[in-house]
Amino acid sequence: MDNMMLNAMREDAMRQQLHKSKRMIWVTFQKEGIHKYPAALDDPKLATGDWDDVSFLGYPHRHMFHFRVSIEVFHDDREIEFIQFSRWLQRLYSVGTDEADGEAGHTVLALDYKSCEMIADDLFLEIRKRYGSNREVHIEVSEDGENGCVVTFPKA
Question: Is residue 12 one of the residues assigned to a domain?
Answer without folding.
Answer: no
